[in-house]
Amino acid sequence: MKSSEVEKSVGADRQAAREVLANAGTSEGARKGWETRRRNGWTPEQLAENREKAASLAKEALSDRQSNRTEKFGQADGEEAADIKAAVGIDVTGFEHQISSRDIRHADKRHGEQRTVGKKKLGERDPKQVPLSDEDFKRVPDLYNSYDRIEPGKPEENTGLPSVRYIKKFPDGMLYGVDVVVEKNRTLRYKTGWKKRI
């Protein structure tokens, strides 16, 4: 298949998924008229619960370096799955979003507040970026629920697995979250994140 045919096929899949969502209109949210661009079926209450779950996980991960907890944050489907397929060519319908305390520490180590531990300098060093805060980790579910766009990411260093970048603009910066696509386990595993100045 030629690359132009692949692009047309992916574009058609994405458009078909969007049409299904647009025509659904029978979801609880549509009936109640919620003002949201939710892509994964979360109600406002579920989104609030997921924010608190992410905040609790981040607090534990950053205060207890031995913590090895993983939390699930719903499944990819509909428009989100179509956008990821367009970005990396993999159908992730039904893949579970997961965030682990280890990966929160990884993001904090590279993109959190600047600090020195022993002789190591940790934290965000790029002047175009803003250090991640506790509030930013709490916002990760918002990336899944109402991202502005999805882009292909770099393959994971150790495994070569593909990744996707979720991007969403907030008043204090443009938040990026990177999920690794793990087909074997049918998961979208949060790996890192950062925030750019706007």
Question: Summary?
Answer:
The protein is an alpha+beta fold and 198 residues long. It has helices spanning 3-24, 28-32, 44-63, 78-88, 101-111, 134-138, 140-146, and strands at 70-75, 96-100, 115-117, 120-122, 129-130, 149-152, 163-170, 173-182, 187-196.
- What's the shape? globular
Largest sheet features: 7 strands, mixed
Report the span from N to C terminus.
40 Å
DSSP, total strands: 9
From the alpha carbons, calculate the radius of gyration and give it in angstroms: 17 Å
Summarize the helix and strand pattern as letters. HHHEHEHEEEHHEEEE
User: Class by helix and strand content?
Assistant: alpha+beta
Overall mean confidence score, pLDDT: 84
Oligomer: single chain
- The domain count comes to 1
Poorly predicted runs:
17-37
| SS element count, helices | 7
Percentage of residues in strands:
25-35%
Question: Can you give the helix content as a percent range?
Answer: 40-55%
Fold and architecture overview:
The chain is an alpha+beta fold and 198 residues long. It has one domain. It contains seven helices and nine strands; from the N terminus they run H-H-H-E-H-E-H-E-E-E-H-H-E-E-E-E. The chain has helices spanning 3-24, 28-32, 44-63, 78-88, 101-111, 134-138, 140-146; strands at residues 70-75, 96-100, 115-117, 120-122, 129-130, 149-152, 163-170, 173-182, 187-196. The strands form two sheets. Strands 1, 2, 5, 6, 7, 8 and 9 form a seven-stranded mixed β-sheet that branches. A hairpin with a 2-residue loop joins strand 7 (163-170) and strand 8. Helix 3 packs antiparallel against helix 7 (140-146). The longest helix is centred in the first third of the chain and has 22 residues, at 3-24. The chain is globular.
